[in-house]
Amino acid sequence: VREAYERATPQSRALAERARSVMPGGDTRSVTYHRPYPSFVDSASGATLQTVDGETLLDVLNNYTQSVLGHAPEPVVEAVCDRFRAGNGVAAPTEPAVELAELLVDRVASIDQIRFCNSGTEATMNAIRAAMAWTGAERICKIDGGYHGTHDVVEIGVSGDGRAHEGIPRSAERRVQTVSYNDSEQLKATFEAVGDELACLVLEPILGAGGMIPATDEFLRTARDVTEDADVPLVFDEVMSFRLSPGGAQERRDVEPDLTALGKLIGGGLPVGAVAGREQLMAQFHPETGSIDHSGTFNANPATMIGGVATLEQLDGDAIAVLNRRGDELRGRLQQIGDDSNQRITITGEGSLFQIHFTDGPVRDWRSSGAGSPLSEPLFHAMRREGILVAPRGMGNLSTPMDDEDIETIATAFERALESL
Ligand code: PMP
């Protein structure tokens, strides 16, 4: 497998060697790294990527769900370029941010107000700060295997072990209480035991990096109930799940959090994040009356904001319905192929999001997901040989330029890839 990959990617290999001498690992994102080296992308348009080695790949990774309209969608490119020509980096508020804020407030029932930042990491960091400032508490409750970016407290328990990675202060562990996803009893017990010490419960309505595992309705309702009873803000991290409905997963699942962290697609392909929610909580960011400092050179950058507006205008209810229908169809096909194969396969996901797991299931949390299976990497390479880019861990997602034929292409590639393992 590895030899075939190296033979197909000589330009990437040369670039990776060059990159390694100036960047550790030759890249700047842990998640995009894989052995022996990731291939370099030259350009991308619509549903496909062109690598520097002259390969064309169907992009079923879409920058980890960010590129929901595919690559270089014309209305977004135009809006962003126009804004650049009009002068972009200014230390003053601009109308595009107001437009994007109004659009999001209109679309999401739980959002009264919003503050923009530059990544999902900053979004969850600011949401947690708002919750801490509100409650005066310093501990958070999060999910085993829940991913919320790379600031200290949310790095705890990312690998389902409740521990800190190197470089994160051990003291951060004392600030985090983890619970298993979809374990309502454990969540209730945790809130009974330490609810009065908690600043917030933060969770993804679909566990993303932890395996693309949907929450049960019961778990989301329990999350709402225990936080309401304890008077602790409920924070939904919708950085990935916002694509599931015009008003995010919270609309689809009919549960309203107090705060929402957003990112990825709301910036039109430029770096973005946002913390949003109920007026009283968000008022803490008001410079005259609030207590939270929130600065950032690129916060509400006009090109990002207008790119977000142009993206959301394309991503309306109809577009999302088509994406979700294709996703349902694809997950059904992949599960059928898995069942007919000699591997143990469970497909999870919701709407246009999916993940392939090497286990019989049921997959309900990080621990039952079979994460770290030795077959994940060979599957990734086998899919790539078939012209399909998914995440090395087996995650994929659809973009609006994909049609029914692309769904068939992905399914056929999966069937052939499984046969080759
Ligand atoms: N939260 C979730 C649910 C995410 O999936 C991610 C990124 N994949 C983040 C937060 C962090 O966002 P960013 O990479 O923009 O910091």
Automatic annotation (TrEMBL):
<dbReference type="InterPro" id="IPR015424">
    <property type="entry name" value="PyrdxlP-dep_Trfase"/>
</dbReference>
<dbReference type="InterPro" id="IPR005814">
    <property type="entry name" value="Aminotrans_3"/>
</dbReference>
<protein>
    <recommendedName>
        <fullName>Glutamate-1-semialdehyde 2,1-aminomutase</fullName>
    </recommendedName>
</protein>
<dbReference type="Pfam" id="PF00202">
    <property type="entry name" value="Aminotran_3"/>
</dbReference>
<keyword id="KW-0663">Pyridoxal phosphate</keyword>
<dbReference type="GO" id="GO:0030170">
    <property type="term" value="F:pyridoxal phosphate binding"/>
</dbReference>
<dbReference type="InterPro" id="IPR015421">
    <property type="entry name" value="PyrdxlP-dep_Trfase_major"/>
</dbReference>
<dbReference type="InterPro" id="IPR015422">
    <property type="entry name" value="PyrdxlP-dep_Trfase_small"/>
</dbReference>
<dbReference type="GO" id="GO:0008483">
    <property type="term" value="F:transaminase activity"/>
</dbReference>
<comment type="similarity">
    <text>Belongs to the class-III pyridoxal-phosphate-dependent aminotransferase family.</text>
</comment>
<dbReference type="GO" id="GO:0042286">
    <property type="term" value="F:glutamate-1-semialdehyde 2,1-aminomutase activity"/>
</dbReference>
<feature type="region of interest" description="Disordered">
    <location>
        <begin position="6"/>
        <end position="30"/>
    </location>
</feature>
<keyword id="KW-0413">Isomerase</keyword>
